[in-house]
Amino acid sequence: MVRRSTCSNAVMQIFITAVMCFLFACPSLSLADSYDDARFAIRNKDYDRAASLLKALASRGHKDAQYQLAAMYRSGRGVPKNHEKAAHWYEKAAQQGHAKAQYNLGIMYEFGWGVEKSRKQAHSWYEKASKQGHSMAQAKLTPENGGRKNKAIEKSANEEISDESRLHRAAVKGDAELAGMLLDKGVSVDAKDKYGASALITASEQGHAELVQLLLQRHADCNLKDSYGDTALIKAVSSENAKIVGLLVKANANVNYADANGNTPLMIAARSGDLGSVRILLSNDARVNPKNRKDWTALSFARSGGHKKIEHLLVSRGAVTLKEAKTETADLGWRIEQRTTLRDKAMPVLVEAAWRNQKDVVKALLDQKVDVNVRDSEQHTALSRAAWRGYEAIVQSLIGAGVKVDTFDNEGRTPLMLAASSGHERVVKQLLLAGANVNMRSESGPSALAIAIRQGQSGVVDILMSYGADIGNSRSENENLLIWAVRNNDVATVKRLLNGDTCIDCVDTHGRAALWYAADQNYVKLLKLLLASKSDFALVCRCTSEIRM
């Protein structure tokens, strides 16, 4: 147990003031740590905090921060989207020799984003980046792109991925800007990937409405089918994205197309309870009474799922009650066989259904007694996929079917760790009640508690500790849990750790303790907590000796 101090408030304030004075004596160290904090915030999608840190660093001349800040202005994450500011910070970093910034500044000049369009300026920046070995800049300088002939550059360019592949990567990420650039360059908007999917199909599945709109404006064929027979509309409805459904329907997507199972978009929307998509489809002449391969209709799906509003809406549009199939325990073996034939590393149907929150498909498969512990190519089970996304109903169904709750994926993560990292508190409780090992970890990886603290999931931390999560289980990690809680400004977790068996003065790989980070970020409340808990003030003073060396 950490001992408490009886320091007076006046003494406490002196300590805090002294700490801040020492920190201002070592700006280079503070810069490095602040940039690490910014990258940490980006990884955890805390873009507002990342932008705040990067602005301070960029204004002090940190070239990596300038590059990252430019990228945030370009994408609109953490700051309002602004090409002029993006170009400004790209140029600041580029002038300091940052190769990626030089290349991206060339892109800005080539397409006139935030700057006056200038092929000459673009070429100049591409050349600078190329000299530093930037392969994409080198590709820009090949003869077909208007550059000078250079065998070394041509060889590097030939090794680059194709523009079609880059378009599909943009579709996965939702990068409308890159997609537009590639389409301007002449890439076919309907180019297909190795699974037969166009960029529109992929973007529709991933939920990138802005990119879907761009692709439709560029006359993408909204009725193309991938190798599995799915269209963009089928993907959008399966992902329960009514906004994209509306965009596709407006572009004349076939609302009555049936997939390989015979399911129409209306059936899929009725099955998942997506009332918004059902309304859009009915308003655009979707037929209400077609049957799929197992004689199920949209009304059958709505009733099976208990979606009363959809049921009443379908009946009002003329849906009739047909003889229902006994259960939706369709023989899905043909589907598994088809997927295995079409690609070597197919995601097993149970795992895919869990990943997509297809509760009815999961139920049908479990009723058929399929292998509940089957894994995909990344060693995920259906449970780990569902836990990661927080799908409580599917998690409960899998637990009821006897799934193993303590399994590792290929990155050493258990279902409990994945649920903890995403902050799915109810799923965390489900897994713990099912017997998940709260302290389980891979040989070198963090525990679920360590992951929750790193991600700032204080609610999950409370649950894990109430189930006996061992604070000391993190002692072999490079940085202890208290440091991470302080860096996240997570007061509740810091208090819990200080009340437990935590190492208050342990240092990280930079030689800094929790108190140093609290002072560096001016977290006064945490400073008071740590100082009151007898944190070693001398640890903060190390930077002065480092400066003198």
Determine the number of helices (DSSP H or I, runs of at least 4 residues): 33
CATH architecture of the largest domain: Alpha Horseshoe
Q: Tell me about the biggest sheet? A: none
Give the class-level CATH name of the largest domain: Mainly Alpha
N- and C-termini, Cα separation: 37 Å
How many structural domains does the protein architecture include? 5
CATH-assigned homologous superfamily of the largest domain: Ankyrin repeat-containing domain
Integer average pLDDT: 80
| Helix and strand composition category | mainly alpha
Helix content: 55-70%
Provide a descriptive summary of the structure in words.
The protein is mainly α. The protein contains 33 helices and no strands. The protein is flat, with a radius of gyration of 28 Å.
Give a quick rundown of the structure.
By secondary structure, the protein is mainly alpha-helical.
Write the layout of secondary structure elements.
Blueprint lengths: L8 H16 L2 H17 L3 H13 L3 H13 L7 H12 L4 H13 L7 H13 L3 H6 L10 H8 L4 H11 L2 H10 L13 H8 L2 H9 L14 H7 L3 H9 L14 H8 L2 H8 L15 H7 L3 H9 L16 H10 L6 H7 L3 H9 L14 H8 L2 H9 L14 H8 L2 H9 L14 H7 L3 H9 L14 H7 L3 H8 L15 H7 L3 H9 L9 H7 L1
